[in-house]
Structure prediction request, 906 residues.
Amino acid sequence: MKDSKLHFRTPLITTPFHARTSAANKLNAWAPWAGYTTALSYSDETMEYTALRNQAGLYDLSPMVKYAITGPDALRFLNRLTLRDVSKLQPGNVHYTAWCDDAGKLIDDGTLFHLAPGRYRLCCQERHLPWLLDSAIGFDVSIEDESEKVAALSLQGPCSFAILARAGLEAAQGLKPFQLMDFAFDGGMLTISRTGFTADLGYELWTTPQAALSLWDHLMVKGADHGLRPIGTTALNMTRIEAGFMIANMDFVSATTALRPDRLRSPFDMGLEWMIDFNKGHFNGRAALKREKESGSTKWAFVGLDIEGNVEAEHALIYDNRKTEVGHITASLWSPTVKRNIALAMLRRPYHAERSGNLWVEIYALRELEYHKLMVKAQVVPRQFFNPPRRRANPPGLY
Amino acid sequence: MPSFDAIVIGAGINGLAAAGRLAMAGARVTVLESAPAAGGMANLAHLSTGIDHRIEKALDLASHGLEWAEPNVASTALSASGNHLTLKGAFGESIEGTLSAADKAAWTALRRDLLGNAAALAPFKEMTPPRLARDHGANIWDLVRNGLALRRMGRDRLREFMRLMLINVHDVLEDELGDDRLKGLLAFDTVLGHHAGPRSPNSLLGLYHRISSRVQGRQAALALPRGGMTSVIAAMQKALSTRGVTLRFNAQVNTIRVDDDRVQSVTLANGDTLTADVVVSALHPATTLMTLVGAPQFDTGVVRRVQNIRSRGTTSRLTLKLKSMPDFRGANLRTRLVIAPSSRAVEEAFNAVKYGAFSPAPVMEIVIPGAFMPEADSDGPTLSALVQYAPVDLRMGWARGRGAFLKVIMEQLEAHAPGLGALVTSADLVTPADVAMRYGAPGGQWHHAELSVEQMLFLRPAIGMAQYSTPVRGLYLASAATHPGGGVAGSAGWNAAGQAIAGGGAA
Prediction:
């Protein structure tokens, strides 16, 4: 039988770094991500988190869904697909964006890379090829799922630039946040972007699967003195909560998969309204979003919460005056860095602002096989719990 | 730049009907037609199942020359052995020919039920489909009123009505009738113009659609206009010109310009640009929205729905010029002649198109206008046939397939009218591929969009566009792909103009 028909025998495939990640994974803690086997943690998630915040961590980003978008109409197509004005995205730059269905409800968010004039890469959490292809009808554009053709690593943490410099990639010093640059590496091409999911100084490195292992080895060797270590998803997720970043189907349900009408979220609900450019011409959801803006019918607000105590409030319900249910928590963490009990939450308006004074979180704390119900006070705060100046410093710090 | 209140694209029956209603509401109307003459796909039809009575009355078509050569054409179910069956009057009021007493009684009962059910559905055809979503309930009351009218049938009749709503015609015929000729004729009438066989799910709806219409108040009648179907169009043209409507022929629309989700103007192939507050397009929704406006102007969900409107044509029109009148084994030529030996034969003819081939034994209806109107035949009689089935995308290709398909049609004709082949002086076959090309109707479907239950009422032509409106304010759809569908009736165009006048739509 043809190999392509035997895919069911490997429900999860491995990334180009698997030879190294599996050797490093002492806990054998794996989880599926976008069809790949990925490490949850390698040896100690606390140490991995600590490395991310104090040294540097190396995260296998390869399962990230990646689309190559090229052709004469690539810019027009992306302007029709996404909320932001792509004509402002110069080659060599990246921007964070999102896209909606006809009803102006979020399908996904992601980063758009302008790799070279007219050549773009869209990175996101979920797969959207049918939506992209149908959106491309009437445009002279080519769209290809290049997820398997690109091997990617995320090098994050205060020492990340110092490690790049040691690795012979000191030219990355010129990269400001959301900029990218090409390097020759191991006879092939390496693209480095100053992007990441940790709200700290950090870079993402994009290369071919062939060069993957030599890139890993090179960085691990050059980074040893700075305490570079492989990072699993658990530690990375802690830092992204501190950063206040959202993930499709964790903080909101993608419009393509939501079954319940009240699960749909608009960019206004998720605090992404700053992306919307109503003056760039037609884009998906424009009419609906315009109506939402004009009618002020936005129902939800995506906020940060500072919760009393130190018990994580995973998926907890939020009440006004201990009585009326007004929202729920989508991600929570006792943050070792900011030393607070933090959470990302969906609140019904106006409990996110005018009426946020009396919010309570109902936590079921599991203590030796028994739930203890806690009702603790919570305060609405900006979603960025951790946002150090070194994240934006130019040139990047050489720690 | 000349400025107009309303532009109608396409001078077929629906475009003309829309233009008439717009003009009566005081709009200055220009109709743009790419062909040198009006009519569009109405020119493919050879009998009328009735013009929408609202149009006939409002435009006073009778005073503008609409006249029926025969307002109640009988039908003959041809038998290859000459044992024909003739259904006289509207939908077989009486039957001539050898038929068992049991079948005659069964037919009387079935006919009464089918006509009754179709009549109950007729009001739904006239109404603009309501929107079921909250906050759009304006004409939900039409639906409620029509629904309550159904309730008045009484419980037992309503139950029977519901049973016969989504059934296939083959099962009904097998249940009720015995005679193959009669069953073949009814099966044919059900599927004529559709991408369906008698056994296709919900096929009976096709028959209801056909027999719910009226000619001069007579339900389910077939009529032949004096001068043929083009005279219907001619009468409408005259009616429109008295109301100040401008018709421009050879005026191919290339683009509809949209700005900020509002229609601005249309541009012709010759470069002329006409601005308008309202543009009503009687072209297929896919042509209007995807080609003239362009997919980039619409949200992806809309593009998907429009691209997925099913529009598979199966019907061809054959026109033969003859040296003299043919002889269909003694059949009365002043009737519509139907070659459909049995319901099974119709179903088997349909099988071929599923595999990209034409029917090896096609079924067809034949009209010889000269038999009704001797004055029509100055240069010898004409035989016109609507033939099924052939797909638009014939696997062998139409370049090669045209001759082959014509050959099997001629064999079928010859079997029922020996010697007919020798009388032919010229033959013109219009295949679904020709229809698609000539009339800009993707798929070559005579109803633009297939008339199947999942593309009816609120779902026609697509979800969110059932009220003739589009996401572009000021742009309306009047194509046969909108409710209630095709047939040379003009209802879709009339309703669309009503919505445009009300300024409704613009979701």
